């Protein structure tokens, strides 16, 4: 298994390690619920070094990304982050990734851990086919990523950087320093809280990690693992690539229609337009269990004894204190308020489709 | 650190405990080591009273935030009672696995089966192996 630069630190403090897409990652340090609540009430620090970073530069870097990705990047300013989708020729999602405009003719793509090779291959092939003048490089191995998330994240990070954090808007970033180490600080995350994603040289990640833990301790900051990251993102209604989204999923049947700009040309557009015109047949919806039990990935979803779909993500929500999830269901039974059932082992337990997200922070 | 494994009961290799009540039935639960490995138990699916269970087959299901784990019947028999408090307070298993977190009372088909289980000392030794 691949290890992040922080692996030894995780083991030393007693983290439980799991295989996440070929990476040895901490799933929890003490308890998922405790780490989840710490993120909602104070702040938590996550090792996200497994995620990928791809650099795209050159005179036609913009032309390439504008064609490769579904989102219109024309208005993107330097220092702005945009979430977008990379599709295959069938209109299926290869990756949902963020686009960082570092400078004119220079971009970073932040990819999911398990999709970075596929992203690199796809974007390179599209650029070559179009004859664009660009350079592309996978900089994941030399780039470390730490997320500090929670209502106290800004106060903790402010102790370690001269960057003007109050002026940094959501989905924007600045080049600055953290604990004296050059870093890209992005106000974004995957938890539904205020927070930052910090990128720095992989070899310096350990120093930043230690500095954040020390600076954050008086504010209640603790390290948190992928277990809490999963419950936090699910409460916030965010999807997990590889579980909720695969190459067989298109952006219209999951809450990613807003990432598609029909006014421009993009790779996969023809297939996706055909899907749109024919009408989608299934939809990813949020649900909460009203009966007993916890719905898990793969459990069948029923409407009056008839199968209408299956659970994509399901867990116990530490904030709501009930079982919630995301499920693909027949479009005819996808309206919020619809009563459904989930087959949990031998029993059928009642559930209800609800609007997303499950949790929205008070601003 | 796990709590001491009490010497007044038997243990299975799957980390269940079995305590003889002295009147033809046994109380079954999971060990403190098991709850510590699971952490944050958020749901317990109990068997129906009257259900016949076979030794080594699922008796109950214990779920943490991330995982779903079967609790295997350490002895075969009939379920006489279940700990309904766990329906609303599954965290009792974390707090007191050997006491208030008990799962079911079973009337063994063959009380002699208890002898095939581990003593507290033998279970201690098993845990030492698992931890290394």
Please name the defining characteristics of this protein:
heterodimer; A: 363 residues; alpha+beta; Gyrase A, domain 2; 3 domains; six-stranded antiparallel beta barrel; 8 helices; globular; B: alpha+beta; OB fold (Dihydrolipoamide Acetyltransferase, E2P); six-stranded antiparallel beta sheet
Number of domains of chain A: 3
Largest sheet of chain B: 6 strands, antiparallel
Per DSSP, what share of the residues of chain A sits in E-state strands of 2 or more residues? 25-35%
Helix segment count of chain A?
8
Mean pLDDT of chain A: 97
Average of per-residue pLDDT values of chain B: 95
Query: What is the CATH H-level superfamily of chain B?
Result: RNA polymerase II/Efflux pump adaptor protein, barrel-sandwich hybrid domain
Query: Could you name the CATH topology of the largest domain in chain A?
Result: Gyrase A, domain 2
| Percent helix range of chain A | 10-25%
Number of domains of chain B: 1
Strand order of the largest sheet of chain B: 1-2-3-9-8-5
Write down the secondary-structure element order of chain A: EHEEHEEHEEEHEEHEEEHEHHEEEEEE
- For the record, the CATH architecture of chain B stands as Beta Barrel
Characterization of this structure:
The complex is a heterodimer of chains A (363) and B (132). Chain A is 21% helix and 35% strand. Chain A has helices spanning 7-12, 32-41, 61-68, 116-130, 153-158, 205-216, 226-235, 269-278; strands at residues 2-3, 16-20, 23-28, 44-47, 52-57, 81-87, 93-103, 106-111, 135-138, 143-149, 173-178, 181-186, 195-201, 222-223, 282-289, 300-303, 306-317, 322-330, 339-344, 347-354. Chain A folds into 3 domains: 2-46 and 142-235, Probable tRNA modification gtpase trme, domain 1 (Gyrase A, domain 2), CATH 3.30.1360.120; 52-138, Aminomethyltransferase beta-barrel domains (Alpha-Beta Plaits, 2-Layer Sandwich); 281-354, Aminomethyltransferase beta-barrel domains (Elongation Factor Tu (Ef-tu), domain 3). Chain A has 8 helices and 20 strands. Chain A has 363 residues and is of the alpha+beta class. Chain A starts with a strand and ends in a 9-residue tail after the last strand. With 132 residues, chain B is of the alpha+beta class. Chain B has a single domain, classed as RNA polymerase II/Efflux pump adaptor protein, barrel-sandwich hybrid domain (OB fold (Dihydrolipoamide Acetyltransferase, E2P), Beta Barrel), CATH 2.40.50. Chain B has 4 helices and 9 strands. In chain B, the strands form 2 sheets. Chain B has a 6-stranded antiparallel sheet. A 3-stranded antiparallel sheet of chain B has the order 4-6-7. In chain B, a hairpin with a 4-residue loop joins β1 and β2. Chain A binds chain B through residues 27-28, 31-34, 36, 227, 230-231, 292-294, 296, 315-316, 318, 323, 345, and chain B through 39-40, 42-43, 45, 61, 63-66, 68, 87.
């Amino acid at each position: 298994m691949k290890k992040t630069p922080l692996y030894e630190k995780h083991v030393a403090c007693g983290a439980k390690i799991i295989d996440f897409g070929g990476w040895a990652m901490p799933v929890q340090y003490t308890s998922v619920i405790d780490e989840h609540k710490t993120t909602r009430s104070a702040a938590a620090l996550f090792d996200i070094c497994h995620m990928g970073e791809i650099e795209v530069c050159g005179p036609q870097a913009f032309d390439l990304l504008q064609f490769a990705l579904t989102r219109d990047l024309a208005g993107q300013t330097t220092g702005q982050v945009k979430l977008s989708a990379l599709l295959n020729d069938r209109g299926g999602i290869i990756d949902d990734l963020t686009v960082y405009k570092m400078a004119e003719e220079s971009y970073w793509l932040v990819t999911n851990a398990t999709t970075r090779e596929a992203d690199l291959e796809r974007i390179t092939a599209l650029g070559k086919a179009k004859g664009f003048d660009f350079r592309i490089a996978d900089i994941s191995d030399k780039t470390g990523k730490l997320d500090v998330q929670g209502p106290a994240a800004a106060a903790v990070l402010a102790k370690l950087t001269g960057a003007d954090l109050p002026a940094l808007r959501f989905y924007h970033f600045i080049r600055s320093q953290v604990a004296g180490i050059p870093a890209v600080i992005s106000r974004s995350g995957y938890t539904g809280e205020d927070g930052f994603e910090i990128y720095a040289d992989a070899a310096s990640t350990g120093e930043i990690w230690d500095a954040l833990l020390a600076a954050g301790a008086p504010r209640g900051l603790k390290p948190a693992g992928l277990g809490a990251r999963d419950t936090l993102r699910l409460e916030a209604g965010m999807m997990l690539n590889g579980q909720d989204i695969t190459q067989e999923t298109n952006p219209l049947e999951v809450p990613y229609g807003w990432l598609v700009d029909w006014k421009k040309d993009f790779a996969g557009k023809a297939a996706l337009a055909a899907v749109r015109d024919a009408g989608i047949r299934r939809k990813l919806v949020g649900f909460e269990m009203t009966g007993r039990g916890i719905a898990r990935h793969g459990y069948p979803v029923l409407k009056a004894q008839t199968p209408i779909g299956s659970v994509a993500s399901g867990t116990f929500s530490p904030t709501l204190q009930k079982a919630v999830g995301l499920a693909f269901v027949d479009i005819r039974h996808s309206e919020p308020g619809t009563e459904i059932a989930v087959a949990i082992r031998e029993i059928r337990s009642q559930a209800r489709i609800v609007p997303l997200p499950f949790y929205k922070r008070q601003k | 650190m796990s709590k001491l494994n009490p010497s007044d009961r038997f243990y299975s290799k799957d980390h269940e405990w079995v305590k003889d009540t002295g009147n033809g039935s046994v109380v079954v639960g999971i060990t403190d080591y098991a709850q510590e490995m699971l952490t944050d138990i958020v749901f317990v699916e109990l068997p129906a009273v009257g259900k016949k269970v076979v030794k080594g087959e699922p008796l109950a299901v214990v779920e943490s935030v991330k995982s779903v784990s079967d609790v295997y019947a350490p002895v075969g028999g009939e379920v006489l009672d279940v700990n309904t408090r766990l329906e609303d307070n599954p965290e009792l298993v974390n707090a007191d696995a050997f006491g208030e977190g008990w799962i079911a009372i079973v009337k063994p088909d063959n009380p002699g089966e208890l002898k095939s289980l581990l003593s507290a000392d033998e279970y201690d030794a098993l845990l030492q192996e698992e931890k290394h």
